[in-house]
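In response to reviewer comment 3 from the previous cycle, which asked for concrete evidence that the modeling workflow produces usable outputs, we include below a single protein chain processed end to end. The sequence was submitted unchanged, and the resulting structure tokens are shown without manual editing.
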Amino acid sequence: METGTGVEEHGETMGRKPATYADLESLPANVVGELIAGELYASPRPAAPHTVAASRLGGELSGPFDRGRGGPGGWLILDEPELHFGEDALVPDLAGWRRERMPRPPRTAAFTLAPDWVCEVLSTSTAALDRGVKLPVYAREGVRHVWFMDPGARTLEVLQLAGARYTLLVTHAGLARVHAPPFEALELELAFLWGEE
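The workflow returned the following structure tokens.
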């Protein structure tokens, strides 16, 4: 993970101006940029295990939850949406909104309504950012469920917002078949998500 500016926890710069959206837009196309508390984070495009896990999870959830085919429907599931929360700009690997909150996607470049669920696929270069920097923003914005998928460790952590903090509901590991909130109506095959099938 590279950082573009230095900002102390209290929001005061350490000799540099806080990063802006213009800094985010100037990043090369081969990185994913995020802006949090005036700090610019640039992560490399994901490697194959990350891409396989995110793509397969999105595919598994879209039919039953987004389209309502073989499942309850009622969700809008998107890959890598750009979320704008005030001055912060985050890009989760996947995000989902309940249709009663977002009946259809806006016709804008970014989303300002916090999702009901996000999934971050962890890698060596992004785990600290996902867990330590982005998770508190998701809590602040009221994202009810966060999943951390780690293809290397073959784990799926399911977190739920309780007040202002997340509680770890369960960690699924290995090649199990699991039911994970808020999508417990579907049995997920972890072996498929890790690219083992």
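The longest helix spans residues 48-67. We consider this sufficient to address the reviewer's concern, and the full set will be provided in the supplementary archive.
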